[in-house]
Write a structure and sequence with these properties.
single chain; mainly alpha
Length: about 160
């Protein structure tokens, strides 16, 4: 019986010690939570800054030169296509649809806008090269589709 009481006292003392040492006051918990939140915010800011720096990298000189020359070639091909369409329109002797003529003028303007965009891009600035390249290529592809759709005869 003495052993059981002794064990009960030891276990009770041990449990009480754990409870008192393991418990924190609410103020301590709040302070610790604020510290953790602030650390997380600081880490997030660092990660966002690193991601922004990575995304804003300018193109290398070689990459920019290749991209610009390829884009210029596409724009010149579009200009040639526009000139051919206008020549066919004049050479046919028939009055072309006003809509067809308006579409050619619209495509010519879009092509000029693309040339202005590529000429205005400053590779040395803090602009986002990857975003510019993706958007410019997308717009050039759409322009190519518009040219192809214009030459399709849907009238029967």
């Amino acid at each position: 019986m003495k052993k059981v009481i002794f064990m009960l006292v030891v276990i009770s003392a041990f449990t009480t010690g754990i409870i008192f040492t393991g418990c924190q006051t609410s103020d301590q918990k709040v302070d610790e939570a604020k510290t953790k939140v602030q650390d997380a915010k600081d880490d997030l800011k660092e990660v966002q800054q690193d991601a922004n720096e990575e995304a804003v990298k300018a193109a290398t000189a070689e990459e920019w030169t290749i991209f610009k020359s390829e884009s210029d070639a596409k724009i010149k091909a579009n200009e040639t296509l526009i000139a051919n369409m206008k020549d066919k329109m004049k050479a046919s002797g028939k009055k072309m649809d006003a809509v067809y003529e308006k579409n050619i003028d619209l495509l010519e303007q879009r092509n000029k806008d693309m040339r202005n965009r590529i000429d205005a891009y400053d590779n040395n600035s803090k602009s986002n090269w990857a975003s510019f390249k993706r958007e410019f290529n997308h717009d050039m592809d759409e322009l190519g589709i518009a040219f192809r759709d214009l030459t399709v005869n849907n009238k029967n």
